[in-house]
Amino acid sequence: MSSYYDIDDIMMEDEFVSVVFQVAANGVGLLDPGAETNCVEQGSKVELPFWLSHELQLRQAVSVNIPACFNQKTRKEIQADAACVDLRNRCPYFYELGCKIAPLVGDRTIGSFLLYAFTGRYKEVLSKAHSAAIAVAPKFLTLFTKEETHLYEAARSSMAAFKKWRLGGPRFERASILGRKRKPND
Amino acid sequence: MLCMSCKLGNTYSLLVNDSSSNRRLVDKLCLSVHWKLIPICWVSWKPPDRGYIMMNTDGSFLQARGDAGVLGSMDRYNSNMFDQVIKECSAHHLEFQSLMRKIQEEGLDIQTTRNADHFGAVIHHLSLIHNKRCLMAYVYNRVEIIQSLRWKLGPVLPQEIQEKLNYSEEEFFKNHSAALESYMSELELDLTVDMVPPKDPYIHVRVLDDIGDVLLSDQSPNLACHSMHFLKRTDAEQFISQGLMEELTG
């Protein structure tokens, strides 16, 4: 369960999903740029952040559409070659959003699709993390979602820790908070 | 303290740079001033590894490119952004109240009415709650970092980190530090030392900065720059984590 203070969770809930209003709402014209008055009409299609769409759906005020990143086109691409799909561009919180949105839209295939995409990309993420040269900023990093980036970094740091353990080295180091070895007044 | 006079409306008021020392001074003198907002400086950075906390020392400002991003997670306290969100909250609150008043004026029951005004009010209410969550998370995550600073760097913060905190964060750090110290003195145990038991109580270190004469638990060496010493591990730990010494191995 995500925590109230979790910044990643907040960022994830800021992803936009498109909804259709089942009711009219006054005084919220800013939500619908096309509206002429300061209200949203019944039946209008609006892009809302997930946190708002979710709450409004619980009150049966809107119906949530499936976001574009879970559509048939993406599914076909994932089936073709999971590791080469640029998921970050589509939705940096692909898996987290998928988990939260599946029960709302009532699409039972999203769960298995997420699992398929993740297992397809998992091996790729780990093997790249272990083999990539440290100094080069790898190109494929731009394809990863947040979750996959964390995985990649975890694999990288455990590899670095293993190497350090094998070679030995000082037990204490300058606190990582202070950053690079440079004098503050340089 | 850099002060400028400026005309706001019909009254003259002080325009003061927003920094912790100025905030303290103004509090002490009970002045009413206008704070000059700190300009936001956008910097690209890479998040630190999980489990690590890094701070944005000035390095990444000077060389703001994505790969410099060693040091990321703590920026200067963004009072500008904070005030903006608070302003947005007040706007939501006003809208919310006016919609509620409208429902009451039409003689409808607030509890059961489900008309367009009700849903408008719901949206404003939810936005308020969401803004609150964002602000709380911002403060909370900074506080967690500040708390860990006491454990990693000791009771005195380096200048470049001190600058990033706002006034109440500094107060929090001082109080947390005092609470920890009183607890440790009650226990007669230093809790901030390394958790892994040492193989040898003494280690070789090289001094990286002029520290001068210090009084350690079993000796009082002169820690001049580049000199090497054989110190008790617990004494050396703090200097090493502050980057003033390095451990020699092999």
UniProtKB/TrEMBL annotation, chain A:
Its main location: nucleus. Residues 5-56 form the DNA replication complex GINS protein PSF3 N-terminal domain. It is found in: Nucleus. Residues 70-165 form the GINS subunit domain. One of its GO terms (biological process) is mitotic DNA replication initiation. Keywords: DNA replication, Nucleus. SUPFAM superfamilies: GINS helical bundle-like, PriA/YqbF domain. PANTHER family: DNA REPLICATION COMPLEX GINS PROTEIN PSF3. Belongs to the GINS3/PSF3 family. This is GINS subunit domain-containing protein. The lineage of its organism: Eukaryota, Viridiplantae, Streptophyta, Embryophyta, Tracheophyta.
From TrEMBL, chain B:
InterPro entries: GINS_A (IPR021151), GINS_bundle-like_dom_sf (IPR036224), GINS_Psf1 (IPR005339), PSF1_C (IPR056783). Residues 118-187 form the GINS subunit domain. GO terms for cellular component: GINS complex. Residues 199-249 form the DNA replication complex GINS protein PSF1 C-terminal domain. SUPFAM superfamilies: GINS helical bundle-like (SSF158573). Keywords: DNA replication, Nucleus. It holds the Pfam family PSF1_C. It is found in: Nucleus. The keyword Nucleus applies. GO terms for biological process: DNA strand elongation involved in mitotic DNA replication. Belongs to the GINS1/PSF1 family. This is GINS subunit domain-containing protein.
